[in-house]
Fold:
Amino acid sequence: MHVAHSLAELTRIRQELVQQGNGLSRERPLVGLTPTMGALHAGHQALIARAAGECGVSIVSIFVNPRQFGPHEDYQRYPQMLEHDLELCAAAGTQIVFNPPVAEVYPEGFATTVAVAGLTERWCGASRPGHFDGVTTIVTKLFTMCRPDRAYFGEKDYQQLTVVKRLAADLNLAVEIVACPTQREPDGLALSSRNAYLSPEERRAAPRLYAALQAAQQQFGRGVTDVTELTRAAQAQLATGSGPQFALEYLALVDAETLLPRPVAHAGDRLLIAARLGTTRLIDNIALQ
Ligand code: AMP
Structure:
């Protein structure tokens, strides 16, 4: 596995590996990219291993992107564990890890923002102003630097996935966006680098976020399609137990593509939730079935 810290190194190694090709086959190998902010867990690992399995040349970027954090968010304390991350990438079959310093990505004088309208305005976009502009700017840069044929994103960050698909289509970025299912702890909690912030009591309470989504799913399974009733079931579940309580940020049933709220639930709609447990902000979502 190669580790590149500069665009020049990345370009050279990528070029060499592409030229070496698919072993005996003469076809140009697919280049796969999995963008991450490091502190890698089994959720990332699923994306990284899939990219390595499907693409002859697979790149993982590890870059904590300052532009997608608000001024009072956790950029300064975001977990970093590069040694562990490199081991995980190597074990998953990655060929190149791209781990640039901030100045390599945003040199002096950097002045461009890539913004997707509409899809970014609600939900996480409303509570984290500027967040998605940071995401779409870094994703565009990573695509132009790594030049992947495919890029792997998790459904865990469902709004981000939808926004990135829009970005790739709107700008003809010629990258296939591959959506990968959310990986969870055995108790249902979606894996997240931010779970490390939770106190033991908060960690015990945290699976209620997914349980809340499942409570709504259960009602839908029984034929309930009224959104007020579905969200009431979810909220009741979120508030159970005597431990730390969630502060709900949003709970919304939305069309899976437009992310606009739905008055009546349909199979395939997405139920999105964001809530704080102490100082930690957690998000999750499911597709109604
Ligand atoms: P992050 O490092 O948090 O920016 O995440 C990098 C990528 O991993 C994003 O596409 C996330 O959606 C994806 N990801 C994070 N957590 C999970 C998870 N639990 N299951 C699947 N994908 C995930």
About this structure: The radius of gyration is 20 Å. Residues 36-37, 43-44, 46-47, 153-154, 156-157, 180, 182-183, 190-193 surround adenosine monophosphate (CB under 6 Å). The first strand starts at residue 2 and ends at 4. The chain has ten helices and nine strands.
